[in-house]
Design goal:
By secondary structure, the chain is α+β, with helices and mostly antiparallel strands. It has 4 helices and 7 strands; from the N terminus they run E-H-H-E-E-E-H-E-H-E-E. Strand 6 and strand 7 form a beta hairpin. The radius of gyration is 16 Å and the shape is globular. The chain starts with 8 loop residues before the first strand and ends with a strand. The N terminus is likely disordered.
Length: about 180
């Protein structure tokens, strides 16, 4: 009898994912300028972030999972939509991000995560999505443009990490009805 092939599944992030998600994000903190966090998180420090992304509503956390992937409990990556700014008038805008395990890059995981995220947001009262991309990051630029994001400006030397300054390009995408 042939063995069934397990596909990559996208689902909401849950408490059981917290260790793997923290480990994945800490990789980007320690090794890259993709995030401007500079100190690794403990699982307990990261728990409020997990709980700020419920299974429904405009602020989501979706994970790509594959049982065949032995690292990080099968977590290949995740995508989030988070509050853009804390003031009430910004409530219909979200900031989105996607992080893929280094072993999963170039396999379409980011595309799968963003497709799922934007499908989930389609029924929500969300008008715009924004994404900041630390430069250089050609793969992220292409991903955002593929999903209809438009470059709206670049903050020059806005973050300092690893002893140098980094630019951040900002992208915008219309969501929902205009």
């Amino acid at each position: 009898m042939p063995q069934e092939r397990t596909e990559v599944q996208v689902r909401p992030g849950v408490e059981a994912d917290l260790g793997a998600l923290t480990d994945l994000y800490n990789h980007f903190i320690r090794e890259t300028a993709i995030t401007f966090d500079t100190a690794a998180f403990t699982i307990e420090q990261r728990r409020p972030w997990l709980h700020s992304h419920p299974e429904d509503g405009p602020h989501r956390l979706l994970v790509a999972h594959d049982d065949r992937f032995v690292g990080r409990n099968g977590i290949l990556g995740y995508a989030t939509s988070s509050p853009f700014r804390p003031k009430p008038a910004y409530a219909t805008s979200v900031e989105v991000s996607v992080y893929c395990a280094p072993e999963a890059t170039g396999r379409g995981v980011g595309t799968l995560l963003y497709r799922s995220l934007f499908e989930a947001l389609a029924g929500e009262d969300v008008h715009r999505a924004y994404a900041g991309v630390a430069l250089p990051n050609e793969a992220s630029r292409r991903l955002h443009e593929r999903f209809g994001f438009t470059h709206i400006g670049t903050y020059r030397e806005v973050g300092r990490k690893f002893g140098r300054y980094w630019d951040v390009a900002w992208y915008e995408k219309e969501l929902g009805e205009a």
